[in-house]
Amino acid sequence: MKIKSKKNEKDILSNYTIKSYFCNRLFNDTKDMKSTDAQFPIAEKQPTKLEKHGDVRIDNYFWMRLTDAQKNAIVKDEQTQKVVDYLEAENAYFDKVTAYTKEFQEDLFLEMKNRIKEDDSSVPYKDNGYYYITRYEIGKQYPIYSRKKDHLEAPEKILFDVNEHAEGFEYFQLGGLNVSPNNKLAVFATDTVSRRQYFLRIKNLETGEIYKDIIENTSGGSVWANDNKTFFYTKKNPETLRSEKIFRHVLGTSAAEDVEIYHEKDLTFSTYVTKTKSDEYIIIGSQSTHSSESQFLDANNPTGKFKVIQKREKELEYDISQYKEHFYILTNKDGATNFKLMKTPISNPSKENWVDVISHREETLLEDFSIFKEYLVLEERTNGLNKIRIKRWDEKEDYYLPFNEETYSAGVFGNPEFDTDIIRYSYNSFTTPSSVIDFNMKDQSKDIKKEQAVLGGKFKKENYTSKRVWVTARDGKKVAISLVYHKDTQLNKDTPLLQYAYGSYGHTVSDSFSTTRLSLLDRGFVFALAHIRGSQYLGREWYEDGKMFHKKNTFTDFVDCSKYLIDNAYTSAKHLYAMGGSAGGLLMGAVVNMNPELYNGVIAAVPFVDVVSTMLDDSIPLTTGEYDEWGNPNNKDSYEYIKSYSPYDQVGAHEYPNMLIITGYHDSQVQYWEPAKWVAKLRELKTDTNLLMLHTNMDSGHGGASGRFEALKETAEEFTFLLALENKLHL
């Protein structure tokens, strides 16, 4: 739709003055206050008529949307300049309001940074005769990737010093490191704008030469064939960023000559390429929310024809691995809601030949599995807790690793070696720093290879308490909340509490340790992680009951958890805070429309809040692939349901909590204009004088800053907002 424009750029913003707002409104201790005049921008209204299914929406801020071409143009057009001016005006307001907190922010940043070991390194892992290591050096933001041949006492060979590659870039990511079978070459991926559109390049690991060829617009991953000269990779649609094509590249040829192997034409699916752990087969996978399909090819025959394992069927999901003459399949076949493990002969792999290996269990979600020469390792979740199960192929042993804490997080590493008795896993909890552990599956001994260091000399595990409570939601379902706080913190109506959740895509947020969170806990905050529907905390049905036409369960679960915490004197509405990012930002937008009175402050990071308009526009990245998550609003029933909770559409003329909204100008997952429009509409309609701030990182995307410690500055900014509301700006 054509956007209306006005010639007079002075009309873009009008200002409203709040005298000494932040200090005088939010703090009572006048002797510590610093007064400031702060003016927040009011965005120009350009009514745009949006009509669907006979329903008309008037969007006053539709003009804020820019195309990628507009954003990337060297010379800004009139609309682009208006948008940038607005975002920068909001940033200037944010900077002015928070100016007096900058010294504290810096101190808080240093406090968090000083807990982290700067010259840190990963536990080496062995793959194809080499030990691979990721390490950091003091004063540097980015990792250094290296390896040692045969043993750890061998000389270190640096593969990539990312600090050197990142010079001159505001944002830089290096990933997708993929070494050839003969260990001589590596494909690597780089992103310099934070839109997850990666360049692929090739480095000769023997000479150090980086070849000139650059493959643009990829997903970042690649897979080598066994001939050491051919690799496969995934191309993205340049507009929608959907991973849609698989190409084959041969060394010594131009990227322009690369052969298209597969084109995923179904807009609700994305595609990828991988390799079995045995290195025998290359796999092309296609995936949507409720369906999947896999093809395989002998890795020794890269020009051969891929063969489909099982054609896609609605509601049939499967993921494969390989052992000897069979594919092993994690699937929901036969109504296995929580998934089961099956196997099928490679010679005839269609579903008619699938047989059970691990049967479906109503009480246990089978999340993943790993195959070794002598063992099968299963990752399960029961009653919300991670379980790791070890099972010998000869069935002589079948047991679980023992975990004793009430809440914790455990997971299996990649474990690239196939012929080994050792499995590597991680373990941590709200109160226990992360450990990397090598477990001997044969004699059941374990070797703790590394424990996360918490520097500064102040952290003691025994000073913190964690527990899990169960909340009865309004429909009778039991929702878990995991809590952590300092042992000296008294739980009462005056206790500040930060409630966090995500609640979408079946993603389960783990009860894991955080060094940065200590800065809140040590200042009297309680951290509460609500395991609401939309995750898979209590199995696959927990996810299914929090999406599509059940999406509102996600929001009401969060609200019911908040009410429980207030009613049971863990905190009060004056001291309760909420936080979520991305789809969790949608959650924040929904709950402040539903029950704003429950929260004193809310942080919404890269929030997905303009749900109707985004899901109606299939040119926007990720839209079509998410119809099965949110619904397709081209269908009237889905349109009406989504509109009924879409935060932007449901902004009302009532009071809202103090709010901090964070976004990135180059975000490819949640476009910047969603939070920008949301803030503009909130300013227009809300009836309170509470604080509302939008901070846009003009250099980053969905994941924020790329530097190791630059990200801590963003965390310090968020925590300062919370601590300021509690008058706790002290070390």
**Main structural class:** alpha+beta
Please state the CA-atom Rg, rounded to the nearest Å. 26 Å
> How many helices in DSSP terms?
14
Sequence stretches where pLDDT stays below 50 over 5 or more residues: 1-36
Cα-to-Cα separation, first versus last residue:
52 Å
CATH superfamily (homologous) name of the domain at 1-116 and 608-731: Alpha/Beta hydrolase fold, catalytic domain
CATH fold-type name of the domain at 1-116 and 608-731: Rossmann fold
- Name given to the CATH architecture of the domain at 1-116 and 608-731: 3-Layer(aba) Sandwich
User: What is the helix content?
Assistant: 10-25%
**Mind telling me the CATH class of the domain at 1-116 and 608-731?**
Alpha Beta
The mean pLDDT is: 91
Tell me the strand order in the biggest sheet. 32-33-35-34-36-37-38-39
In total, the number of strands is: 39
In percent, how much strand structure appears in the residues?
25-35%
Q: Judging from the principal axes of the Cα atoms, what is the shape?
A: globular
Largest sheet: 8 strands, mixed
3D structure, described in words:
The model is unreliable at 1-36 (pLDDT under 50). 18% of the residues lie in helices and 33% in strands. A hairpin with a 6-residue loop joins β13 and β14. Among the domains are: 1-116 and 608-731, 3-Layer(aba) Sandwich (Rossmann fold), CATH 3.40.50.1820; 169-316, Methylamine Dehydrogenase, Chain H, CATH 2.130.10; 464-572, 3-Layer(aba) Sandwich (Rossmann fold). An eight-stranded mixed beta sheet has the order 32-33-35-34-36-37-38-39, sandwiched between helices. Strands 9-10-11-12-13-14-15 form a seven-stranded antiparallel beta sheet, with no helix packed on it. Strands 5-6-7-8 form a four-stranded antiparallel beta sheet. The two termini are 52 Å apart. The chain is globular and about 70 Å long. With 731 residues, it is an alpha+beta fold. α8 crosses α9 (583-594).
